[in-house]
Write a sequence for this structure.
């Protein structure tokens, strides 16, 4: 609920300066806006960054987090400017807090951003890290000119500072599971970006999967959104949606072809840990695995995780006579490389999820 109030009422609910500490206003001011444009602008950014944070926590934990960030920023703001007169209102400081949380928890998530440069307009996918960093930098530059005064840009930065603290606390105490996609893990290199030494196994024409067949049970709205993100090549958003679905339906699982599509999306981004995880989900759920896909996964096993015996087991059923000359050469190269790793004494721990025939 957001309030668009007459001036006299807005003073009651907005965050006032010079009247001491008013805890109720720390919360009510988040829901007061100065007009429809102000409201729509904030809701647009709340939708973008709120989706990321809610995807990690679920709505029941997201709402308190949002209110805590907003109230904490308002308390700091009211105390800092207690000797001045005036007031502030709006959700933008809390939203900048969510932006900071998103940067810490999911810096590589992507946002679809509309741009308009002269006569050229369009939509581009931009990482959370880049987009939020640009907005923070803009606010810092403005504050450099205005100094320490209750300007919009300074209040945005206060919200970002509160969000940073909250985001780090959740991460430190493991109140959120970022699966090593958080900013600290990325900076520490826990998500390797090693390039494959050979080109992809599956031709472009066969790397795109068809949507699930019509004989499946109709998708509900949440599941449809997961599929929509997946087929729009937005794997991070799809994973967030998967978490939301499993908060209510813990045993729900997408069909095998969507696990494979998710694995390929992360493979394309060289996010090997995630790609491997979803290839495993595909292997567990697929009743049949075609030869090209077996070779595709074997390439990961040999070149990335060094599981040569598991790769050979996976390649054993491949019918070489059904492959064209190029793929036959590739298959031979994979088997040769796997045997070489075994001869070199590579230690391979047993993993039932890979040891499939």
């Amino acid at each position: 609920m957001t309030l668009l109030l007459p001036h006299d009422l807005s003073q009651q609910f907005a965050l006032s300066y010079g009247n001491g500490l008013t805890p109720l206003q720390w919360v009510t001011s988040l829901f007061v806006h100065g007009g429809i444009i102000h409201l729509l602008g904030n809701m647009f950014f709340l939708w973008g960054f709120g989706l990321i944070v809610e995807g990690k926590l679920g709505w029941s934990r997201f709402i308190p987090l949002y209110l805590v960030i907003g109230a904490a920023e308002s308390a700091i703001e009211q105390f800092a400017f207690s000797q001045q007169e005036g007031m502030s209102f709006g959700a933008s400081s809390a939203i900048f807090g969510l932006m900071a949380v998103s940067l810490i928890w999911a810096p590589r998530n992507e946002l679809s951003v509309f741009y308009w440069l002269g006569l050229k307009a369009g939509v581009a996918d931009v990482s959370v890290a880049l987009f939020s960093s640009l907005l923070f930098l803009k606010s810092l530059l403005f504050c450099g000119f205005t100094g320490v005064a209750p300007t919009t840009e300074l209040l945005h930065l206060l919200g970002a500072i509160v969000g940073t603290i909250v985001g780090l606390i959740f991460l430190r105490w493991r109140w959120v599971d970022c699966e090593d996609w958080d900013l600290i893990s990325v900076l520490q290199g826990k998500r390797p970006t090693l390039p494959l030494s050979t080109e992809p196994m599956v031709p472009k024409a066969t790397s795109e999967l068809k949507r699930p067949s019509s004989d499946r049970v109709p998708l509900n709205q949440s599941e449809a959104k997961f599929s929509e993100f997946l087929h729009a090549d937005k794997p991070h958003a799809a994973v967030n949606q998967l978490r939301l679905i499993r908060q209510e339906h813990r045993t729900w699982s997408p069909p095998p072809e969507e696990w494979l599509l998710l694995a390929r999306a992360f493979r394309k981004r060289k996010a090997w840990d995630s790609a491997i995880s979803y290839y495993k989900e595909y292997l567990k759920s697929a009743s049949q695995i075609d030869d090209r896909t077996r070779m595709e996964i074997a390439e990961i096993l040999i070149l990335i995780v060094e599981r040569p015996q598991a790769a050979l087991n996976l390649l054993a059923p491949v019918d070489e006579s059904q492959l064209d000359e190029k793929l036959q050469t590739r298959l031979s190269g994979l088997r040769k490389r796997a045997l070489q790793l075994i001869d070199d004494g590579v230690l391979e721990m047993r993993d039932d999820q890979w040891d499939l025939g």
Notes: The chain has 16 helices and four strands.
